[in-house]
Design brief:
Layout: H1 7-38, H2 44-73, H3 76-83, H4 89-128
Length: 136
């Protein structure tokens, strides 16, 4: 992966990140709408709770992506298989760093999705009157 140093490439990377986060949030919203219709959720509190749990689950999956990557690359089988390939130590290190950065990328995506879900939950609560803050 080459470094992104120009403002245009950074803007493209940010737009891609934002598109992934919003796409995942749309999928979560469709799933919550389906569940709300299926189980007859009619109050704002039920919808807000669903978004809150979606945020908790998304953030949890993000952190588990780091743990899973760390555990799988520290196993004896993985270490042995990377030591017998025809690459220098530097190339193997670069591959490990790229895998590690990929795990952090997944963490950032899911952390942003979780925070956005918490925000939607809060908005549903405020505009739904659950917190007693009825805004005309």
């Amino acid at each position: 992966m080459k470094a992104t140093s120009s403002p245009k490439s950074m803007l493209v990377a940010f737009a891609r990140f934002l598109g992934i986060v919003l796409g995942l949030e749309v999928i979560i919203s469709i799933l919550i709408a389906f569940l709300a219709n299926r189980y007859h959720w009619t109050t704002a509190e039920q919808i807000a709770t669903a978004y809150m749990w979606a945020g908790i689950i998304a953030i949890g999956f993000g952190f588990f992506s780091l743990v899973g990557q760390w555990e799988s690359t520290r196993s004896f089988e993985h270490q042995y298989s990377t030591s017998v390939i025809n690459k220098s130590a530097w190339e193997r290190t670069q591959g490990n760093v790229m895998d590690f950065l990929q795990s952090f990328r997944v963490l950032l995506w899911l952390l942003a999705v979780g925070i956005l879900s918490f925000g939607i939950s809060w908005l549903v609560q405020v505009y739904g009157g659950v917190m007693g803050l009825l805004i005309p």
